[in-house]
Specification:
single chain; alpha+beta; Aminoglycoside 3'-phosphotransferase, Chain: A, domain 2; 3 domains; six-stranded antiparallel β-sheet; 16 strands; globular; disordered N terminus
Length: 453
């Protein structure tokens, strides 16, 4: 643990982290990005603490859900979180819901108020200053592209969108994504956009600066990229089209072409597998289904039909080679600026191991994710308009085929398997985080398991 003068204990019996650990145990499960909402935080271990600047602490904490980690284990692999905590004697009333609480135990922080520093404009500005000038602060490494210039004095604002990380926009020119759930290794949201930029792919904003750590393991903590100020995300555009009764097929076709552009660039930037390699197997899909049924028993009646969908890997013609993909592609991960589509957020599904997210998979997995997203959008309106989703799905696949040279629709068995695997993931996610949305993926489960279309 890195300590500075601000953190030197004033009491020999109370460590700095112990004094506010109780506050964090209550606060963490309430955060949108916390993965263990269905389990109480029984153990909280601070793996690293650094004074980023006066009044702001950078922490990596392990939130345990029973039992004390043994020294030989790496408990942070699944439940390590990045926190930036502001510490004030007299907190500003403008912090509002960002306040975590007042430290009442002994130690150097006794009597001070702790808050989420990302809600504090001063802390957000000082964080950008660290990124503007490459430097080392304890185990933290602030690095960047020397060819890119980041102006000083950009006004920060914290995005309030529902997401698994936290993002700060600076002057509508740059956006900083800070990863909340940290795993050892290079995060694909830094690795992939950097590689695509070197390929000359204009569909993905290139990294400008980034933050990483060397302790207690090497990991990516955040990425700064250009902010597309006049862009709208695909989810918003789709809902607007639905509300207005407008067709969305032209946009879907263009989005299919953009997806193919990114896949082609990824195939050039990274190694690809042999034809027919998928990176996933029916056994792996079945294992995820079994785990999901255990958590969401409403899936049980559909298990035979879902397993039949997964059997496609053994009976269908080989699909495209495995390659690096987006990993969590949907309408919320694409932006339209002018007439162009851009793809963002290459982190993949945060709940899955980083090694899996950095491995190769069939591009059909991305395509299936986008097809599921069209269905999600269509179900936001009453009455449900399945024909709207069907037309978007057809147009998207046609656009992809026009650019990629092969048609996802001709890989029906494999595409059904990937869409089924995605729907199972959605059921588990919605059951844990948004129970009111559970009927959306369950409708797809019924369609895929019973009708097989």
């Amino acid at each position: 643990m890195t300590k500075t003068a601000f953190l030197r204990p004033r009491s020999a019996t109370v460590k700095p982290t112990e004094s506010f650990a109780g506050l964090l145990r209550e606060w963490l499960p309430e955060q949108r990005w916390f993965a263990g909402k269905d389990r109480p935080v029984t153990d909280l271990h601070v793996l690293s603490m650094t004074e980023l600047f006066p009044g702001c602490l950078h922490l990596l904490v392990h939130a345990g859900h029973g039992g004390v980690p043994s020294p030989g284990n790496t408990p942070w692999a699944g439940d390590c979180y990045q926190l930036l905590l502001g510490v004030r004697e007299h907190p500003s009333p403008h912090l509002g819901r960002a306040v975590i609480g007042r430290v009442r135990e002994g130690g150097p922080l006794a009597g001070r108020t702790v808050h989420d520093a990302l809600h504090d404009p001063r802390s957000a500005q000082l964080l950008l200053e660290r990124l503007r000038h490459p430097q080392v602060v304890g185990p933290l490494r602030f690095e960047g592209d020397a060819a890119q210039r980041v102006p000083a004095g950009l006004v920060p604002r914290l995005l309030d969108a529902e997401q698994s990380n936290s993002s700060l926009v600076y002057g509508d020119e740059f956006i900083l994504k800070l990863f909340r759930r940290i795993q050892p290794g290079v995060n694909p949201d830094l690795e992939v956009p950097g590689a695509l930029a070197r390929q000359g792919c204009h569909r993905v904003p290139a990294p400008v600066a980034w933050l990483r750590t060397t302790h207690p393991f090497k990991a990516t903590l955040g990425v700064l990229q250009p902010f597309l100020r006049d862009a709208s995300d695909g989810w918003t555009l789709a809902l607007e089209a639905l509300a207005a009764g407008d067709d969305f097929t032209a946009q879907s076709h263009a989005l299919g072409r953009a997806t193919a552009d990114v896949h082609l660039a990824l195939a050039s930037a990274f190694l690809v597998g042999r034809p027919g390699e998928s990176g996933l197997t029916s056994e792996g899909m079945t294992e995820r289904l079994t785990a999901a049924v255990h958590s969401v028993p409403v899936l049980q009646p559909y298990v035979p039909g879902l397993k039949a969908a997964f059997a496609a890997f053994a009976t269908c013609d080989p699909g495209p080679p495995a390659q690096r993909i987006h990993g969590d592609l949907h309408l919320g991960q694409v932006l339209r600026a002018g007439r162009d589509w851009f793809v963002i957020d290459f982190e993949g599904e945060p709940s899955r191991p980083l090694s899996e997210r950095r491995s190769t998979h069939s591009p059909l997995r991305d395509i299936a994710g986008m097809l599921r997203s069209f269905d999600y959008a269509a179900r936001q309106r009453r009455p449900w308009r399945p024909e709207w989703a069907r037309r978007c799905r057809e147009a998207y696949c046609a656009g992809y085929a026009a650019r990629a040279g092969w048609d996802p629709r001709k890989k029906h068995g494999l595409l059904r398997a990937y869409e089924t695997d995605r729907a199972v993931y959605e059921v588990l996610y919605e059951a844990r985080h948004r129970p009111d949305w559970l009927p959306v993926p369950m409708a797809a489960i019924e369609r895929l398991a019973v009708r097989g279309d």
